[in-house]
Amino acid sequence: MNPKLAPLFTRRSVRRYSGEPVTDAEIRDLLEAAMAAPSACATDPWHFVVLRGRPALDALAGVLPNGPMLKQAEAAIVICGDPARAHRNQESYLLQDCSAAIENILLAASLLGLGACWLGVHPNADRMEPIRRQLGIPEAILPVSAIALGRPAEFPELRTRFRAEAVHAGKW
Ligand SMILES: Cc1cc2nc3c(=O)[nH]c(=O)nc-3n(C[C@H](O)[C@H](O)[C@H](O)COP(=O)(O)O)c2cc1C
């Protein structure tokens, strides 16, 4: 592992939070990072719903069985995509662009000393529809993923998951 890349390997999913606040300026920083992500033909098909406060975060936890840590989180960001803006209106480009924005948020959170965890939403209709109803997301917009955020109360070790057998030199 090249030590110059340590900030990248330090990013880990953090699922326990201390309860200390996450500031509005930090959320703004995360959103700036998100919207600096690569996007096919720079179409930027993403939207971000920022959730604060116990009732909203508990309600999101209520519809995401995969996100129990939302009950301790200080904030959450629900990443959505607009197919009408995506390159060639294609869902695959929308998902790739939103995933790049999500990874930028996770890396920025790690660099700012925040804890964050990616929560899968798309393509599970039983997660997408309740989130859509709860947050008033228009029918044409896809809720893609959520990110739980807080000040970390656990510190997973930095690591690489490099597997030589996943690399194919020249041909498979
Ligand atoms: C598309 C996607 C969906 C994920 N959904 C969840 C989830 O619902 N709940 C959760 O706790 N972690 C979720 N994760 C986080 C992964 O479990 C985590 O990234 C993986 O175990 C690697 O660990 P690391 O993030 O600490 O490197 C998701 C990650 C991705 C990329």
CATH class: Alpha Beta
Percent helix, as a range, is 25-40%
Tell me the fraction of residues in β-strands, as a range: 15-25%
**What is the structural class?**
alpha+beta
Strand element count: 4
Count of alpha and pi helical runs:
5
User: Which architecture does the CATH hierarchy give at level 2?
Assistant: 3-Layer(aba) Sandwich
Q: What is the global morphology? A: globular
Bound ions, cofactors and other small molecules, one mention each: flavin mononucleotide
Look at the structure and name the CATH superfamily: NADH Oxidase
| N- and C-termini, Cα separation | 24 Å
Query: What name does CATH use for the topology?
Result: NADH Oxidase
Give Rg in angstroms: 17 Å
- Uncertain runs are none
Order of helices and strands, N to C?
A: HHEHEHEHE
Please render the helix and strand layout as text.
Elements: H1 6-10, H2 24-34, E1 46-52, H3 54-63, E2 75-81, H4 91-111, E3 115-120, H5 125-135, E4 142-150
Antiparallel strand pairs: 1-2, 2-4, 3-4
Helix pairs in contact: 2-4
The structure holds flavin mononucleotide.
Flavin mononucleotide (FMN) binds next to strand 3.
Your description of this structure?
This protein is of the alpha+beta class. The chain has a single domain (29-155), classed as NADH Oxidase (3-Layer(aba) Sandwich), CATH 3.40.109. The protein has 5 helices and 4 strands; from the N terminus they run H-H-E-H-E-H-E-H-E. The chain has a 4-stranded antiparallel beta sheet with strand order 1-2-4-3, sandwiched between helices. Helix 2 (24-34) crosses helix 4. The longest helix is centred in the middle third of the chain and has 21 residues, at 91-111. The chain starts with 5 loop residues before the first helix and ends in a 22-residue tail after the last strand. The chain binds flavin mononucleotide.
